[in-house]
Amino acid sequence: MKFEKREILLIVGVLLLMVGMMSVLAPIYALVIAILAYFGIKVFVGRKKRQIQKEIGQGICAICGEKISDGKCPRCDLQ
Ligand SMILES: [Zn+2]
Predict the structure, then answer these.
(1) Distance CA 33, CA 31 (A)
(2) Is the whole-model pTM more than 0.90?
(3) Spacing, Cα 65 to ligand 1 middle (Å)
(4) Confidence of residue 79 (pLDDT cuts 50, 70, 90)
(5) What is the domain extent for residue 14?
(6) Is the dihedral of CA 73, 75, 76, 79 positive or negative?
(7) Each residue of 18-77: pLDDT tens digit?
(8) Which of 57, 58, 52, 53 has its CA nearest to residue 70?
(9) Which residues are in the CB-under-5-Å shell of ion ligand 1?
């Protein structure tokens, strides 16, 4: 598993969150919430990244330069 800088920041953030929660919650609950938060953020970021890639992957219209969505140019392919 390759660790990116953002990944390390996320882990540090989650650890700080866990330590903070440990002062008000039982450590086991703090741990569970921290793990859930970690994977929740991972899924959220992964989904967003895929969405951006999908948008970039469809490219722009060769005629007017509009961003292509659903395989069509919103300006040229209005039918
Ligand atoms: Zn177009």
Answers:
(1) 6
(2) no
(3) 6
(4) low
(5) 1-79
(6) positive
(7) 999 999 999 999 999 999 999 999 999 899 988 888 777 788 888 898 888 888 888 887
(8) 58
(9) 61, 63-64, 66, 73, 75-76
